Amino acid sequence: MLQPKRRKYIKDFRGKMRGVTTRGATLAFGEYGLKSQGRCWLSASQIEAARRTITHNLKKGGRVWVRVFPDKPVTSRPAGKRMGGGKGDIDRYVAVVTPGRILFEVAGAAKEFVETAFSRASAKLPIKTKVISKEEEV
Q: Pfam family example for this protein (predicted)?
């Protein structure tokens, strides 16, 4: 699973997911990209499941870039534990995604394979997404 090696501060506040993406909103590496249309917390396991689906459906050829990284810790308390006693332990890491963020990029594959791979990968994600390409972006 993806997670940071070290952090200066172990636990974070929950925060708000306001506005749209300003950085990471354009294609940087590949010819096609999967762009978010909603806002959510993407867990490391959801990112990995989508990445595996994309690489499996591209067959041979095609390079995949993951453009999001789960760097926000989410804490939880054990079930049945009474309130108090401080903040809970870190349960998982998530990536904060806002509308317009590029989640994955692909290069070196045919458009039909890319579209099927992205549609199957988006079924594993909790937000609406759309496929974009270099030609549409210009």
A: Ribosomal_L16
- Backbone CA torsion sign across 34, 39, 40, 41: positive
Q: CATH for 32-75+90-137, among 3.60.21.10, 3.90.1170.10, 3.20.20.70, 1.10.10.10?
A: 3.90.1170.10
d(CA 25, CA 66): 13
In terms of Cα–Cα distance, which of 53, 69, 60, 63 is closest to 1? 69
Q: Which helix (H) or strand (E) holds 36?
A: strand 32-36
Q: Is the pTM of this model over 0.85?
A: yes
The series of mean pLDDT values per 10 residues for the chain, 138 residues long, is 90 92 93 96 97 92 94 94 92 96 95 94 96 82
Give the whole-angstrom CA distance, residue 39 versus residue 128.
9
Alpha helices in 85-131 (DSSP H): 111-122
E-strand stretches of 79-128: 89-97, 102-107
70, two tokens:
């789960």
